[in-house]
Amino acid sequence: MTVNSMEIPESTVIERLKTLSSEGRKQALRTLVTDYDFLESMTVYGDRKIRDICSKRGIDWDSLSEEERERLVDEMKHESRRP
């Protein structure tokens, strides 16, 4: 049995990945990340947790810009370090 192989530059592979559908990208991640299901569950948990914290503080997470979100999370990290 003959096996054919073809050299494809990594940059080409990366560009092709960007053209995949949402489901195709998820499948690629599952292939590359051994604990994808754990990573996904932690992402869902983190999303719920930050929304809950914001809600308790009267903040609408969805209305924040990316910059505002980053600043808020940074402030929260520093709060947890204060004695």
Describe the model.
With 83 residues, the protein is an all-alpha fold. The protein has a domain at 34-83. It contains four helices and no strands. The longest helix has 21 residues, at 36-56. The termini are far apart. The mean pLDDT is 90.
Task: Furnish the topology, listing elements before pairings.
Layout (H helix, E strand, L loop, with lengths): L9 H9 L3 H11 L3 H21 L9 H16 L2
Helix/strand order, N-terminal first: HHHH
- Got a strand count? 0
Largest sheet geometry: none
User: What value does the Rg take, in angstroms?
Assistant: 20 Å
Structural class: mainly alpha
β-sheet strand percentage = under 5%
Helix content: 55-70%
Low-confidence stretches: none
**In one word, what is the shape?**
elongated
In whole angstroms, the N-to-C terminal distance is: 68 Å
Helix count, DSSP H or I runs of 4 or more residues:
4
